[in-house]
Amino acid sequence: MSKHTILHRVAPLFAALALGAGVGAGVYAGVSGGSSRPTTTTTVAATTSTVQPAAATTTVSSLTQLYKQAAPGVVDITVTEAPTGNGNGFGFGGSQTTQAEGTGFVYDTKGDIITAAHVVDGATAFKVRFQDGKTVTATLVGKDDSTDTAVIKVNVDASELHPLTIGSSASVQPGDAVVAIGSPFGLTESMTSGIVSAIDRTITAPNNYSISGAIQTDAPINHGNSGGPLLTTGGDVIGVNVQIDSNSNGSEGVGFSTPIDTVKSVADTLISGGKVQHAYLGIQVSDAANSSGAKVNSVVSSSPADSAGLKAGDVITKIDGKQITNADDLTAAVNVYKPGDKATITLDRGGSTKSVSVTFGTRPS
């Protein structure tokens, strides 16, 4: 899924707290937490579907209708990236520009298109291809690496745009039927189906912070799908596909989408000309080994956590009274706050319970 690339999942450990290492579209929420698993980019072989028996006619018909309804609002995005080479050593210029591919979907009739931040990263030009074959240039409105969300804009008549219906990710449950539409391996307007496998996952964003609340799905997602919509069978967008988890360089039925509630908030801010900001604590954390809570592995010097007196070895158990059972909980909890907000953190330090007051800062880019 990326520009022909889809980010690979890295276990989260930095939740809106500090910086950490991560891959693909995924895991950082303002905490800093890294993953012990390496990040890799996988290439997946296309799979063929088996013809369904007559008994599945109703399901096939509904999915066919969904495709007809949603596909016109899904676009293929080709990005041009600047050369990075320094020449060939014989005085003949640098390396050539490269192109990559991803997916996006129409957000409104003004020409705004949502995609993944890692799709547009490093791009110098964009081309958008609609289902009817029409291809136009686009400009970058803005992007937020912390949520792997970007908005680009095309200048076409409103009558040619087919915005998708934006749903809500708040009520998504495991078992919900979903479909993904995108351009896996450049095969534009491809639809795959599956279910929501799990919710409230934490994945690593391109800037190594954590994205909390991610939706896990077994709908096949491959390179080129990045930035495309994850939809309910009713046609509502509930997530943006950004990452896969694979040991074989292929789609193994473990894909992740940034929740649409997060994406919508970021997109609206970017479109209005605002600056997206996230709360920052400044710690690296992991699950507590022998108890419930998030263990502080390190504290960034001069960060809000440092100013509040947090120390490596502390186990955070509550924020403003909300129970924290692991690192993911802490990531999700911190993401609720805004820069400048204050909170009371309850922690265990050497067997003693302590409370400290912290004022969240603004997450570094």
Structural summary, described in words:
There is one protein chain. With 365 residues, the chain is mainly β. It has two domains: 1-78 and 97-271, Thrombin, subunit H (Beta Barrel); 279-362, Roll (Pdz3 Domain). The protein is built from five helices and 22 strands. Strands 9-10-11-14-13-12 form a six-stranded antiparallel beta barrel. Strands 2-3-4-7-6-5 form a six-stranded antiparallel β-barrel. Strands 16, 17, 18, 19, 20 and 21 form a six-stranded antiparallel beta sheet that branches. Strand 12 (229-232) and strand 13 form a beta hairpin. The longest helix is centred in the N-terminal third of the chain and has 14 residues, at 57-70. The protein is globular. It starts with 6 loop residues before the first strand and ends with a strand. The model is unreliable at 1-5, 9-58 and 88-93 (pLDDT under 50).
Please provide a brief summary of the model.
With 365 residues, the protein is mainly beta. It is built from 5 helices and 22 strands. It is globular and about 65 Å long.
